[in-house]
Each structure stands twice: as structure tokens, then as C-alpha cells.
């Protein structure tokens, strides 16, 4: 049977090493837990756990770290046959402090990283044809040939009538290009995107503007797109057809801030691809993100259907998740 996918994503897949010495500064941390991480890998795990059919296009190292990433994703139901293992590039690593109650300090180790070696040849037309949506990321624009691959995937997805989703994913330490080149690259992908997701600082970085209002105006064709601004526990803002809707968030005990945005995207895409309004999909995204930040991991803290349904029902919210556990 021909493969079909709800989401085909490009982007980061790596290893997270998160401190188990809670509250200790990085220099004093002695114990870490190992997880699969990277924004695209996290989103694919979250979406797959919710029942979406997901495939990831990326590259990892041909070693035990690459094997670990692929093995975990495969076990989570993510299609991994489009992940290439290579001799030259490394699998990226993120080290993070964990201090419950506040955002985490983290540091990337991504020198000569394999996922930024992804090129246009890795993006097969038949895979995009088989997808309902295509997800590309801002970090993927930071170097060639990855920029060309992400732009090609966005162009192809738009041409084939797919929902092109752009996760702005701004990580300043991973860019070497000047502002003018960075915003030019973002702009070229923004032209193709039907859905744009990021926090306020990511919208500013993507456009080079200093005010969110101006950043929204600077996005090509913004009146024809669904724009989502994530705000953590404050919720999210959805702008669609010149109408702005504020979607409330959830106040929860914070283990670490990492992964909340990735959880949001997985929950949002679940609802959006089911034909919900963008605002209703964003509320589900807010819920998934709130669950993720309560856990120690990013990928491993993505909720399964029963956990998500329970979280919503405890707050008097009723969504038809299609599992028979929550009625709306």
C-alpha cells in the first residue's frame, strides 16, 4: 500500500542531555538523562502519539547516536526511512540545566551537524505528494544545503496544494549569517507558508522588525495566512483573515520551559488537520505544551491520548479527540 502521511517534516533530530541535579548550575551538574530531541523530532513524536501519520526527512550520524535517534522515532511510529545516516556529519546534542519553576539554561553542540547537510535530493516529490502537510523550520534555513532543501520542500508543498507550516524556530546561537541574509531567507519561505507558528521574538527575528505589529505586516501575503503567536502559559494568539483571537493558556507547575513550543505544534496540527478552527486547534496546542513543560523530557513528555483527554476534562474542556475518551 502506498505510504500516506498527515505531516512530513524537515529539521532537527538529535540527543538531549538534561540535568538530573535539579537546581544545580551547569558547572556542578553530574547526572544527566538522555532523550531524543530536536524540534522536528519532538513534534513528530507528539503528533504520532496523538494518532497522526508522520514522516521525518533529516540526517543523523552513522554511529550509535544516529542509531539511537532512528530507533526511538521508529518505536514511536514515526516513519524513518527518509532519515539518512552519514559518515561526515554529527548528531546534534543539547545539554540543559533543569531548575523547576523557571526556564532552563541550555547549550547546543552542533558543529558540523548532520541535519544541516540535508539537501534537495533528500526531499522526494512522491513523499510530498503523499503528505497532507509539510513542516519546515527556521533553524533549517541557517546553512546550506539545508536552506535549499527547506525552501524546495515549501515550494513543492505549496505547488502541490499541501498545507505548508513554517515553525519559525529562531535559535540565535545557530546562525552566522548577517541580519539581511537571515531575513531574506525567512521571507522566501514565508511566501510559501500557509501557517506560521512562533513566539514574539521569533516573529521579530524572522522579519527584522522591532514590534510585533510591524512583523505581522512584513509577512508576505499575511492576510491569506494563519499566523499563530505562542505565549507560553499566557496562551496563544491566532490571526486569520485579519481577525485576531486570543486563546487562553494553562498555568501549570513548570519543570522546564523547553519543549512547550514543540508540544504546541503537535497539538495544533492534530486539530487543524481534523478541520477545526485555528483557534480551537491552538487551545489543544496550548494544552499539549502545558503537559510537556511539566515533564523532564521534551519528546518523552509528549502526551498520549488518555493523558491529554484527562488534562482537558479536569479543566472542564470537551474536545472530540476521536478516541472515544472525550466527547465534544
What does this entry show, briefly?
The protein is α/β, with parallel strands linked by helices. The chain is 34% helix and 21% strand.
SSE string: EEEHEHEEEHEHEHEHHEEEHHH
- The fraction of residues assigned to DSSP E strands is 15-25%
| Broad shape | globular
| Uncertain residue ranges | 324-328
Description:
The protein is of the alpha/beta class. The protein has one domain (5-314): 3-Layer(aba) Sandwich (UDP-N-acetylmuramoyl-L-alanine:D-glutamate ligase). 34% of the residues lie in helices and 21% in strands. The protein is built from ten helices and 13 strands. The protein has a nine-stranded mixed β-sheet with strand order 5-4-1-8-9-10-11-12-13, sandwiched between helices. Strands 3-2-6-7 form a four-stranded mixed β-sheet. Helix 4 links the parallel strand 8 and strand 9. Helix 1 (39-49) packs across helix 8 (260-273) and helix 4 (146-159) runs parallel beside helix 5. The chain is globular and about 50 Å long. The model is unreliable at 324-328 (pLDDT under 50).
Amino acid at each position: 500500500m502506498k505510504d500516506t502521511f498527515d505531516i512530513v517534516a524537515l529539521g532537527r533530530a538529535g540527543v538531549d542531555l538534561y540535568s538530573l541535579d535539579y537546581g544545580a548550575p551547569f558547572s556542578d551538574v553530574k547526572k544527566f538523562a538522555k532523550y531524543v530531541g530536536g524540534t522536528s523530532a519532538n513534534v513528530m513524536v507528539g503528533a504520532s502519539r496523538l494518532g497522526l501519520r508522520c514522516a521525518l526527512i533529516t540526517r543523523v550520524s552513522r554511529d550509535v547516536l544516529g542509531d539511537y535517534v532512528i530507533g526511538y522515532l521508529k518505536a514511536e511510529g514515526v516513519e524513518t526511512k527518509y532519515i539518512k545516516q552519514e559518515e561526515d556529519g554529527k548528531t546534534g546534542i543539547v545539554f540543559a540545566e533543569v531548575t523547576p519553576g523557571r526556564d532552563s539554561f541550555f547549550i547546543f553542540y552542533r558543529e558540523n551537524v548532520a541535519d544541516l547537510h540535508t539537501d534537495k535530493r533528500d526531499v522526494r516529490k512522491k513523499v510530498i505528494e503523499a503528505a497532507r502537510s509539510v513542516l519546515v523550520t527556521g533553524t533549517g534555513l541557517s546553512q546550506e544545503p539545508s536552506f535549499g532543501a527547506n525552501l524546495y520542500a515549501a515550494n513543492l508543498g505549496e505547488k502541490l496544494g499541501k498545507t505548508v507550516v513554517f515553525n519559525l524556530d529562531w535559535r540565535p546561537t545557530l546562525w552566522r549569517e548577517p541580519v539581511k541574509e537571515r531575513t531574506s531567507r525567512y521571507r522566501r519561505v514565508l511566501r510559501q507558508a500557509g501557517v506560521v507558528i512562533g513566539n514574539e521574538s521569533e516573529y521579530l527575528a524572522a522579519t527584522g522588525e522591532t514590534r510585533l505589529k510591524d512583523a505581522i505586516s512584513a509577512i508576505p501575503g499575511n492576510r491569506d495566512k494563519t499566523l499563530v503567536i505562542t505565549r507560553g502559559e499566557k496562551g496563544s494568539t491566532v490571526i486569520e483573515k485579519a481577525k485576531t483571537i486570543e486563546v487562553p493558556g494553562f498555568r501549570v507547575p513548570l519543570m522546564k520551559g523547553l519543549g512547550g513550543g514543540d508540544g504546541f505544534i503537535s497539538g495544533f496540527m492534530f486539530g487543524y488537520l481534523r478541520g477545526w478552527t485555528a483557534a480551537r486547534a491552538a487551545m489543544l496546542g496550548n494544552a499539549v505544551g502545558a503537559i510537556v513543560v511539566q515533564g523532564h523530557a521534551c519528546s518523552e513528555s509528549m502526551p498520549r491520548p488518555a493523558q491529554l483527554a484527562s488534562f482537558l476534562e479536569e479543566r472542564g474542556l470537551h474536545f472530540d479527540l476521536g478516541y472515544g475518551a472525550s466527547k465534544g
